[in-house]
Amino acid sequence: MARVGAISRHDMEVRRYPFLVYGLVPLAALVLQAWLPRVVGRYAWFDLPLVVTVYFALGRRSPIQGTIMGAVLGLFEDALTGNAIGINGIAKTVCGFLAASVGIRVDVENSAIRIMLNFALSLLSSAIYLFVYRFLLGMSLEWSWMTQLYIAIGNSILAFFVFPLLDRLKLRD
Amino acid sequence: MESFFARYRNYLVLLTILVAQMIGLAVQVRRTGAGRSSLGMQDGEGVRLIRLWANTLVSPPERFVHSSRMLVAGLWQNYFDLRHTRAENQQLQQTIDRLRLEQAALLEDARQGQRLEGLMGFQQKYLYGTQAAQIFGTGGSNLSRVLYIDKGSADKLERDMAVITPDGIVGKVREVLGRHSAQVLAINDQNSGAGVILETTRIRGILRGNADGRLQIVDLLADKRIQPGEKVLTAGGDQIFPRGLPVGEVEKVVNDPDRDGFIKIMVRPAAHLDRLDEVLVITSMQPRFSPQEQNDLATSEALKGAEAASLDEQRKASTIMAERLPGLTDPNAPPKPVDPNAPQPSLLVVAPAKPLKPIHPDRFSPGAAPAAQASAPAGDKPKAQAEKASSPTSRATNQADSDAGAQPAPGSPDSEPKPQRHP
Prior knowledge:
The complex is a heterodimer.
Chain A: H1 19-40, H2 48-60, H3 63-80, H4 87-105, H5 111-136, H6 145-167
Chain B: H1 2-7, H2 9-28, E1 29-31, E2 37-39, H3 45-80, H4 85-120, E3 129-138, E4 146-149, E5 162-164, E6 169-178, E7 181-186, E8 194-198, E9 204-209, E10 215-221, E11 231-234, E12 246-255, E13 262-269, E14 278-284, H5 291-324, H6 371-374, H7 381-390, H8 392-403
Antiparallel strand pairs in B: 1-2, 3-4, 3-14, 4-7, 5-6, 5-14, 6-7, 8-9, 8-11, 9-10, 10-13, 11-12, 12-13
Helix pairs in contact in B: 4-5
């Protein structure tokens, strides 16, 4: 059973990765996020940069690193779209910070917690996006919460398969 | 103070990054005259730079992935999955031949129509200059529908050029990011807009995407004539898409939840926006024919000449057959005698039409009244006639006319037939 709030030495262990992983994995996430919609069409209900942000934030357990990772990936994601640069950046910055903050307090090895965290942070990211777009910038935007729900589910499923793969990349002591 | 920064370091970093991004957003968004916020029509230099960086970073691996996939797909399709290819090839070749002839005929009609419109001074735009491009990536977001194509400034692409497929319109060039890269804003994006017209009802509207990436025509008053299945075409008023290109067809009509009396038309796109591989960018609207079209035109003219020659041959053959076959005229019958006095048809002169001689001529008959009398005023006419009757000169003249066989004046005493006395 997951031990929520556990502060054992194992849980507090900070994961370390080869230097290239910090560059290549986010880049691969951006590339696949831009390319996969051509393959799956309108069913591209996932946000790989967010999944990667949550993964590194949870693994590194550093709110600053999670914040920076989220900001960079969000800004690049915005730059690839036609929208204003910074909307996804703000959303993923907050998500990265929160994921790292939560990662300090919960057992991130547990798959159920990972999936639930991805689901919740995906919906939060969508809510922040909507808030920034509509209320902070005052621009009109048609919104479908159902689509965002699908994306959250997609991210959770993706996390279930991607997190164990990325775990293999971490450095062993 | 140092302990404050150390204690709240995480929050300070978060706050700094958030504030920096908000300032960046505030720079990009502009207030319109109507009091609403919107993104500028063109990115600023800083924003464009960030987009270029992102594109430079992401495009090469994206192209590599795309090329790898195409290579594998090509290997499979060209070398392994070749069943029924020969039969399909023959069938397609026949179709190409037929379509080429049809196209040549249509080009001829187009050329004629173009000439007529030129005469009328009608400013019609034609889409003859196109550039084929391949899509290698997307924006990767459900809230922004953009595509990336492998043609850029080296191919003379510019902003706001229309992007189409043979099936229908796709979008417009939003930004040229490099020599071989450009960003296309798809028509199902929320920020996109295209002027469209319904084919049958001729109702005009603005087409844009919704949150689900579906096409809709918005800001329309309710109209019962609009039915599902009706075709939607570009209206040509947006200065981007030429008029008359297929857009899609009406899928359903729904009420606008935000405004009473208004409707939204959901449109099923003609182009497969989710599964696009190749597109055409309209680079020039000037009317001109490509070398291929010129060849087709020449083929068409040659075919027309051959058709005319064939018709001549048929006519000659039918003449020969008519001579050989028994007909209504007997070739063995003696020739008809020719009348030497009969005028030759070519020498006949058509006589000018002459009025018939009246049975009971009067003074109004043609040639009866002299010009002087005819021109006399109405009130002076009886007097003039009396003077004429009493004048010896006029009597002599009348007599001379009578002797000469001239037409007697109608109504005059000389014109009356005199009874002959028998001894």
